[in-house]
Amino acid sequence: MIQTQMQSKPTVVLTSHVHPPVYDYLREHAQVIMPAWPDPLSEKELHAALHKATAVMVFMHDRVDEDWLNHAPYLKLVAGALKGYDNIDVQSCTEKGIYVSIVNDLLTLPTAELTVGLMISLGRCINMGDKLVRSGGFVGWRPRFFGKGIANTTVGLLGFGAIGKAIAKRLTGFDCRLLCWDQMQLSEPDAAQYNIRQTSFEDLLGQSDWIISCLPLTEQTQHIINSQTLKLIRSDAMLINPSRGSVVDEAAVADALEMGLLGGYAADVFEMEDWARSDRPGHIETQLLQSPDRTVLTPHLGSAVDSVRQQIEMEAAINIVDFLHGQPPRGRINELKQTADQHLPG
After folding, report:
1. CATH 3.40.50.720 is right for the domain spanning 108-297
2. Could you point out which of 26, 116, 136, 146 has its C-alpha 20 to 30 Å from the C-alpha of 93?
3. Active-site residue, 300 included
4. Rounded distance, CA 242 to CA 164, Å?
5. Is position 144 annotated as part of the catalytic site?
6. 244, 294, 309, 343: the active-site residue
């Protein structure tokens, strides 16, 4: 059931349900179309709503491409309630005179927190221990579920942008050695602040007890962890992926786990989610799902802190309201060749 507030105002479409204060804020300025919690708009509902839309708030499940945009003849703003925007065809939006805005920084800290949680859950066998206790099989301490801690280990960060730095900051109290690989040269102040050393991609894979992907999805990073690069990783190392599913080849990771060439894998993201790929798989690699003792898999919980999600939605809503009031959205990532009058909706 679609929730809508009928007024003679510009139409704003929300492809997913948002917190009530965000909905109430938007409906002061626009006619709002929003699906009921928790499912997004169906394809039929979305196409009908887009035909009326001046602005739309999109989420990770959306793929904003040429076909999607063709259903939105009056659209002027795509406001992402997200940070990574590889699911949005920014070039097509720009060519059609449509702003694209994102929320740049609110997702970083909760994603970094979850990453540490994935490390501890995977390394300390928390899933297996929980399963044993719930099964009634726990009768007292036994010498089992001996795992891997973080203290006195080497943690390698693939990518050292905002999320990489946030993870490094949270690991400073764990008495571990930090390495990073990034295309940008590590500055001396950052090296000192995070007590981290930059190294080559190959050396990081070979030296690290823990390998964490902090990479965006690009042509260069897609399947950067694959059957060949996995051979460089130590057989007891743990691989953590809180960034984008397609940074790793899930089938290759599953094979490495099966053959004992990788100690464990934890992921909050999956290849099936990456709408930027026309060849994205339709499901999570089955072999990964069948390896519960060597994997920890969570359903994209990176920013799933209730207060943070509301802040993210509100920031996207502010971008929309700014635009409806004739201002370019503050979180825009593209510029349009148009006059000030053309900034106004309608």
Report:
1. yes
2. 26
3. yes
4. 11
5. no
6. 244
b/e 17-28 (16+ beta carbons within 10 angstroms → b): bbbeebbebbbe
Tell me what the mean pLDDT of segment 128-144 comes to.
93
Please determine whether the domains at 2-104+305-343 and 108-297 fall in the same fold group of CATH.
yes
State pLDDT tens for residues 271-295.
999 988 889 999 999 999 999 999 9
Q: What is the pLDDT of residues 313-330, one digit of tens each?
A: 999 999 999 999 999 999
Q: Which of 47, 277, 300, 332 is catalytic?
A: 300
List C-alpha distances in Å: 341 to 273, 318, 322, 323. Answer: 38, 20, 14, 12
List the catalytic residue out of 250, 273, 285, 313: 273
The secondary structure of 230-269 as a DSSP string is GGGS-TT-EEEE-S-GGGB-HHHHHHHHHTTSSSEEEES-
CATH code for the domain defined by 2-104+305-343? 3.40.50.720
Residue ranges per structural domain of the chain:
2-104+305-343, 108-297
Active site residue 273: yes
pLDDT given for residue 341 in this prediction:
39
221-249, pLDDT tens digit by residue?
999 999 999 999 999 999 999 999 999 99
